[in-house]
Amino acid sequence: MLIRQGKTKTIGFIVNDITNPFYALMLNKAETVVLKHGIQMIFATSNWDPRKELSALENMLQARAEETGRRVWQDLAVMGIDNLEVSALSRLSLTSIRQPYERIAELAAETLINSIENNRMPEISKSFEPELVIRRSTLINNPD
Question: Residues 9, 38: contact at Cβ < 8 Å?
Fold first, then answer.
């Protein structure tokens, strides 16, 4: 919403492990997309430590608030993409996207077994529907 309203041109990402190829690929692709839209990207890594994750997020938000004269939690919205347990448990109450990891794992295991049993590589094209889990972090009070 804030990007659409022209109130921000920055997206921040916090990943658990920058050395994990998945996160590196995700950041690379995300940067390609946001730059095409004239949006800058910043990122931090938490090394799987929920305290570092929360601290990185608070630092990003505070920097953005100081830059724009806005108030953290009143004018700035934030969301996650992996719906880790810390998203709901922290004081942040982070809006996030819940991915169907269990179903993805089941399909991967079934595909592997079928591949071994049939001695051939299967062709798979499967989409999974994520779920938006709305929490306090995107429920901002913005009178603009």
Answer: yes
For the chain, domains (ranges, CATH) are: 10-138 (3.40.50.2300)
Using alpha carbons, select from 14, 91, 84 the residue that is nearest to residue 46: 14
Q: How far apart are CA 72 and CA 136, in angstroms?
A: 12
- At residue 71, the 3 state secondary structure works out as coil
In Å, how far from its chain's centre is CA 2? 16
Tokens of 11: 């997206």
Cβ neighbourhood burial of 137 (10 Å; 0-12, 13-18, 19+): buried
Reported pTM: 0.60
**Bridge partner list, 11:** 41
Burial 28-65 (b: 16+ CB within 10 A, else e): eebbeebeeeeeeeebbbbeeeeeebbebbeebbeebb
Other Cβ atoms closer than 10 A to 82: 15
Mean pLDDT across the stretch 120-137? 84
